[in-house]
Design brief:
This protein is α+β, with helices and mostly antiparallel strands and 253 residues long. It folds into 2 domains: 111 residues, Luciferase, domain 3 (Roll), CATH 2.30.38.10; 135 residues, GMP Synthetase, Chain A, domain 3 (2-Layer Sandwich). The chain has 8 helices and 13 strands. The strands form 4 sheets. It has a 4-stranded mixed β-sheet with strand order 1-2-3-4. It has a 4-stranded antiparallel β-sheet with strand order 5-6-7-8. The chain has a 3-stranded mixed β-sheet with strand order 11-12-13, with helices on both faces. Strand 1, helix 1 and strand 2 form a beta-alpha-beta unit. The N and C termini lie far apart (50 Å).
Length: 253
């Protein structure tokens, strides 16, 4: 078996690896918690979760969904920064992780997003975009996705097409080999396949959190253009500014 903890592992990948005989034990932790907080065990594993808290570590979920952590492995505070330390701990001494998560009846922890990334729609619904984005990216034809909707009447998404999958897709659907994503982004076959991915992603959330509209962009996000981080995560503030007009178009039509 192997342990994964650097970034979220899509549940479908967990099932895939298990299917080919490789057990991947996903865990979770932060620098401030001396690394691991929780991890799946070989004999107690739940795919899609980051496992059970380690001995000596306590985890609870705040009213707003934030994961709070307590234990001797949690750091005492930031060096010579009392203000930051005070903001990072609750009044009763629990560390605020900044992550949004859930604990199930068996004590398994699941991380559903970052608190700073939470989208609040005009109707007051809190939406964790990572849940939708992870499911969208698991589809072969999709490269990247950014869910939007903060202060808007509904949730929408900007979607890119995977460059490696696009060529075989064109051949399979009888499209010109020279056609670009820009040429085909309104093509009914491509739109239908992306809609299928969106419908699948929406199964993971409530109707109020579901993606109502999407826009296929001309090109994929890249690290070179500053749109992706070193860990290949999307940089929301950069993308929101760069594609502001596209986002407006989703809500004006």
């Amino acid at each position: 078996w192997a342990v994964s903890g650097g970034a979220a592992l899509a549940p479908r990948l967990g099932h895939f690896f298990r299917g080919v005989g490789v057990t991947v034990l996903e865990g979770y932790g932060l620098t401030e918690t001396t690394a691991a907080v929780s991890v799946n065990r070989p004999d107690r594993q739940k795919i899609g979760s980051v496992g059970l808290p380690l001995p000596g570590v306590a985890v609870r979920i705040a009213d707003d969904g934030e994961v709070l952590i307590h234990g001797k492995t949690v750091f005492p505070g930031y060096w010579q920064n009392e203000e930051a330390t005070a903001e990072t701990f609750t009044e009763d001494g629990w560390f605020r992780s900044g992550d949004i998560g859930e604990l199930d009846d068996e004590g398994f922890l699941s991380i559903t997003g970052r608190k700073k990334d939470i989208i609040v729609t005009a109707g007051g619904k809190n939406v964790a975009p990572a849940v939708l984005e992870d499911r969208l990216r698991s589809h072969l034809i999709i490269g990247q996705a950014m869910v939007v909707g903060d202060g808007r009447p509904f949730v929408a998404a900007l979607i890119t097409i995977d460059t490696d999958a696009f060529g075989p897709w064109k051949e399979q659907h009888g499209k010109p080999a020279s056609a670009t994503v820009a040429d085909l982004k309104d093509d009914p076959d491509l739109v239908a396949d992306v809609q299928h991915a969106v419908d699948d992603a929406n199964l993971a959330v409530s109707r109020a959190e579901s993606i109502r509209k999407f826009l296929i962009l001309d090109s994929d996000f890249t690290q070179e253009q500053g749109q992706l981080s070193a860990k290949q995560g999307i940089r929301r503030s950069v993308l929101a500014k760069e594609f502001a007009s596209d986002i407006e178009a989703l809500y004006s039509s």
